[in-house]
Amino acid sequence: MYYDNYPVGHPKKIFNTSIKKYSESNWYGFIKCKLLPPTNLYHPVLPIKSKKLVFTLCNQCHLDKIRQCTHNTDQKSLTGTWTTDEVQKAIEKGYKILKIYEVQHFEKKSNTLFKEYIKRFLKIKLETSSWKNDYRTVNDYILAVKNAVGIDLDVENIKENPGLRALAKICLNSFWGKFGQRPNQTKTEIISKPDRWYQVLLDRKLEIENIVFLTDDLVEVSYKQINEYVGNEHNTNIYIAAFTTSNARLRLYNMLDNLGEKVVYYDTDSVFYIFDDVEVKTGCMLGEWTDELGPGVHITDWVSTGPKSLAHTDNENRTTTKIKGFTLSYENIQKLNMDSMKKIMNDEIKEVQLQFQQITRNSKTKQLATTFTSKTFKMEYDKRMAMYSEGDIIETLPWGYLNN
């Protein structure tokens, strides 16, 4: 949001244009089209959304989980709406446009829409962050920030403050998401008057999701509007939200393209890779890659069973385990850890059962209670093809990949 361009104004909608005209025009915005991916691209460029966001080289292989692609052009092709920037990168990597349905072109674009907002909170974040690992003196740090992002730090405010830093980071990271927030949120209302109760119950524009009779005189009803009746919100802008994620994907892709098959795992803003002869420039400024492990630290043992499910040990014998959806208490980490994840990967065990203690609320009485629940951890990986072998490394390839 600080460096990259965003569309400004209202788009011009272009229908039934030719591929030749599109390639000759410098259109900027969004394009709905059908593309044919290349067959041997290790890191695909364009995502498609089914139940998950998947980067595939063949749509039918992804849908049917077919490991040897024999599909025709129509079955392989991807149809969707992407930014013109992403489609341009895809064309550079070998994608071919088969048909264009619609282009939404913006005459104007700007990289200053959010600069002042970002500057305000980035200044707080930088003043409260640790700088001693990267710079010799505080003056060196101040000068580096000035040269990199044009922000003047106040020397008297430069002091590590994790709480204030976290607050500034939330303001920086969450701002863009409001532009893409769904306008049709579920609403819960406690009703005591009969006329209001019947008004909600008989409203054809509403979809009732839940009803709880709290007492003889009170009813709690949850509802949301039927999609066809949802109006436009004045504080959202899907174009801004879409370009934010698109710009982020392109920045990530540039790193993936640079590292190639040395990448072992990546997420929205992070990459784990095999350090060999590839130099990755790191820093602590906005938009720069940061070494999260610290100076002189590297990973010696690694396992991942899928997205947001990983564990690694470094050369200082520290083990980190991160698994989305599982609270890794001391008791649970004895069962779900690097060793058990490896056993699941090697098919020595199928799953790990865990017990969780959680606080729940009775929907009728609203009283809180401590309850116990169980959760099962198992390997569920289908975003790419896992190419199992007898070695320690399990290679993965995108669906539809053919080694020409």
TrEMBL record:
It is an enzyme of class 2 (transferase). Its EC number is 2.7.7.7. The keyword Hydrolase does not apply. One of its GO terms (biological process) is DNA replication. Pfam families: DNA_pol_B_2 (PF03175). GO terms for molecular function: DNA binding; DNA-directed DNA polymerase activity; nucleotide binding. It comes from the Eukaryota. It catalyses: DNA(n) + a 2'-deoxyribonucleoside 5'-triphosphate = DNA(n+1) + diphosphate. Residues 1-134, 160-257 form the DNA-directed DNA polymerase family B mitochondria/virus domain. The keyword S-adenosyl-L-methionine does not apply. Keywords: DNA replication, DNA-binding, DNA-directed DNA polymerase, Nucleotidyltransferase, Transferase. Gene3D superfamilies: Helix hairpin bin, Palm domain of DNA polymerase. Belongs to the DNA polymerase type-B family. This is DNA-directed DNA polymerase. It comes from Aphis glycines.
